[in-house]
Each structure stands twice: as C-alpha cells, then as structure tokens.
Write a structure and sequence with these properties.
Layout: E1 7-16, H1 19-48, H2 56-66, H3 81-103, E2 124-129, E3 135-136, E4 142-144, E5 148-153, E6 164-169, E7 175-183, H4 185-191, E8 198-202, E9 209-211, E10 216-217, H5 221-239, H6 245-279, E11 282-286, H7 297-305, H8 307-320, E12 324-328, E13 354-356, E14 363-365, H9 366-377, E15 401-402, H10 408-411
Parallel strand pairs: 8-11, 11-12
Antiparallel strand pairs: 1-5, 1-7, 1-15, 2-6, 3-4, 4-5, 6-7, 8-9, 9-10, 13-14
This protein binds zinc ion (ZN).
C-alpha cells in the first residue's frame, strides 16, 4: 500500500450529564485548571529564580500528591487523579510546543508560552486517557471516574476502542465527549491485503445473512444461548406479581439478559463484518431502512437482527481497509428477479423458499438468488477485473478524519 500515516479518528457526541454529574464535572474542570495553572506557575517561578525547570515527576508529586494533603488544595482528591495527571501532561506539552516553536523545529505559526487558564475561558475540558478507568456501559453511557455514567447521544458507531476521551463544555453550556481512535494504515493493509473477490449479501428471514456464493450464515451459538436466556428471563418476569420484590429482581435479570444479548450480537456483527471485509474487495448489501418496512415480518427480523448496525460496521471497516461497499435500495426487486436470466418473475410470498424461473427454468434458493441479485445490482458482478465498479458509494466520515496532531503529544512518554 501507499504512504504510511497514522490516521486518527475523532468522534464527538453530545453528552447529557444530570445535575449531580454537572456539579462533578464543574469540579473536575476546576481542579484540572488549578493543576495546570500551578504547573505553569512552578515553571515561571523556576525561570525567575534562574533554576532548572522542575521535572514532570517532581511536579506530579508536588502539585498533586502533596498538594492534596494541604488545606487549600485538599479538594483535589475529589476528582479523578488521572484528570489531574493529564492536566500536568497538557502543561508539559504546551511548553514543549512553545520551545519547539522558539527553536523553529515546530511547523506552523509561532506560539506563545502557556497561559494561565481561567474559569471564564470559552471551553472547559478534561481528558481521560486509556488507563483512566473510564468505559462505555452496556446501556451506552459514558462512565467516568468520580463523575458517573453520563448519558450520551450516539449519532454513529465507534469503529474501534477509543484511546482517549475529552469531555468538553462549550460556551453554550453544552457538553460533548470527543473520542480519539488511532488506526495504523500499514498494519491495516498488512492485515487485509487487496483481493479480487466480491460478494453480495442478502438478509434472510431464516438466516441472519445469505451470501451470493451460497453461504448461509446463522447466528452463532453464543448469541442464540444469550437470546434463549433472555426469553426465559422475560417469561419469568411475566409470571411475577406486580409490585412484588421478586418482580423487581426479575426485571433486573431481564435487563442484564438484554445487555448480554446486545453484547453478543455486537460481537457477532464484528466477527462477521471483519471476515467479509477481509475476504472481499467489493461488498454489496441491501439498504434496508426499517422505516420503509414498517410492521412487516421482515421489519421485525431486520430490527431484531440489528441489521442496520451490522451495515454500519461494514461501512466503516470498508473505509478503513480500502474496500468498496455498495448499498442498493429496497426498490430493487431482489427476490423477484431470476439471477440467471434477469427475468422479473413476479412477487414471491415469504413462505416460498425455492422457486423455478418461468423463463429459463433455473431452480433458485430464494435467499441465494436475492444475494446474487444484490451483487449484480451493485455492479459488482459484471466487473471483468474484479475491481469494484461503483466507487464512492461509501458514506464518508471525512469530517472526523484527521491525519495529524490531536492529542498525540499528551500520550508521548
Ligand atoms: Zn431465469
């Protein structure tokens, strides 16, 4: 593959902290600011006294560990230590950038020395790195140390586990979480070398997916087991008396089982999407918008199977690994058209699993025929050299893609 650059993907999502969490965040913003300012002051004092700059470890001991034991800084222990450490690192890198700029080794416009931060600054922020014990909960909240599980509005799927998250409060009082994701194009290219294979995928009712090469894919056993447990838990809940203690217990059990199913499904989607992306250069799928299928049996199947989240995994993986994903609209009559001769053979009720083409006589498995049609409709089947025919069909996430700078310096050392 061509040039080797680290691609950083930044994904920002709106956060909705409750009042308690807002107070905790305000505390964290404030403490991070104080530690940053203390670090700048320590540097300034050393410079004025013509003494060497205190080392990072020394500052950490003095401005965090020891400061917590003093009356005027004891409240530092109310926020996550990692936030404070990160603030020190931010001060360090601000100085590093400043000196590099002075020496001319840093590209871009000249930058001044770090300035004291103020509570009146337009943007308040704190950063949690990978080791900061933050995580995304089963229910999709951002769980931050000493702040709690904050509600997130997920507008898209995170492609890979983020390396850090910055929590921002803007002037409008809105909160955001900005996740950083690192990709390694060289490793990506090595992991998924180019191939000349293409495939069409159809969502089956009897199977999770059917491929144009005839493969029928079912949910894996670990997902089916989780689904079975959920069903059992739901049945138990329905038998419990309303308002009873046992009912509350049963409800919790259902909630947990739900989360397990979601996890298992996500895992399955990851495994399958990675396999399909790995084995094929061009992938065609039906774009099944659940809205358009409302109240049909297929809609329930599409929804239950999490088809749309599966498609979005295929999308970002295709982009990341240089594959072409083509989504074809629902208007293509994939189950009605003969994949051999192209004749439109009329609608087939859902219970018809196999049919013979009235024009050419080919006997079709309903789902495999549909998958073949998906592939043809996407233009992937007619390509002579195996190269994808319809480039640019992948919804780009360019606005989040950057190849430089964001918080790399803070992660150095
Ligand atoms: Zn035919």
């Amino acid at each position: 593959m061509s040039s080797v650059i680290v691609m950083q993907l930044r994904y920002a999502f709106r956060l909705y902290p409750d009042t308690g969490q807002q107070t905790a965040l305000a505390k964290a913003f404030g403490c991070a600011r104080v530690v940053f300012n203390d670090a700048v002051r320590a540097r300034e004092d050393a410079r004025k006294a013509e003494q060497p700059f205190p080392k990072a470890a020394e500052l950490s001991t003095r401005l965090i560990t020891e400061a917590k034991r003093t009356a005027e800084r004891s409240w530092l222990s109310e926020v996550s230590a990692v936030v404070l450490q990160q603030s020190l690192r931010d001060a360090e890198s601000a100085y590093r950038n400043f000196f590099a700029s002075l020496k001319g080794t840093r590209k871009g416009p000249k930058i001044g020395p770090p300035r004291f931060k103020s509570r009146k600054d337009k943007r308040q922020s704190i950063r949690f790195t990978a080791n900061a014990r933050w995580n995304i909960t089963d229910s999709g909240r951002l769980n931050l140390p000493k702040i709690g599980a904050v509600k997130v509005k997920w507008s898209r799927t995170l492609p890979t586990p983020p390396t850090s998250v910055t929590v921002i409060k803007d002037t409008a009082g809105r909160y955001f979480a900005s996740f950083v994701i690192d990709t390694d194009p060289a490793a990506d290219a090595e992991r998924m070398p180019e191939t000349d294979r293409t495939i069409g995928i159809d969502l089956g009712l009897t199977h999770f997916a059917v491929l144009s090469d005839g493969t029928k894919i079912d949910s894996p056993r670990f997902l089916r087991r989780a689904e079975k447990k959920l069903k059992k838990a739901q049945q138990e809940l329905s038998r419990k008396q309303k308002g009873s203690k046992n009912r509350a217990k049963a409800r919790l059990k259902v909630a947990r089982a739900h989360a397990k199913v979601a996890d298992a499904r996500r895992e399955f989607h990851h495994q399958l999407s990675t396999k399909l992306i790995s084995e094929n250069q061009g992938i065609a799928v039906e774009d099944l918008s659940v809205a358009g299928l409302a109240r049909t049996k297929l809609a329930k199947s599409v929804h239950d199977a999490g088809w749309s989240s599966f498609i979005s995994m295929l999308e970002y993986k295709a982009e990341r690994y240089g594959r072409t994903l083509v989504k074809i609209g629902r208007f293509e009559p994939t189950s009605q058209t003969c994949s051999t001769c192209g004749v439109k053979d009329g609608p087939k009720p859902l219970n018809v699993r196999e049919w013979a083409c009235t024009a050419c006589g080919t006997v079709h498995d309903r789902d495999i025929n549909a998958a073949l049609n998906v592939k043809t409709a996407a233009g992937l089947a007619v390509s002579a050299c195996g190269a994808p025919v319809r480039p640019g069909a992948i919804p780009a996430q360019r606005e989040e893609t950057g190849s430089h700078g964001f918080p790399t310096e803070s992660r150095a050392a």
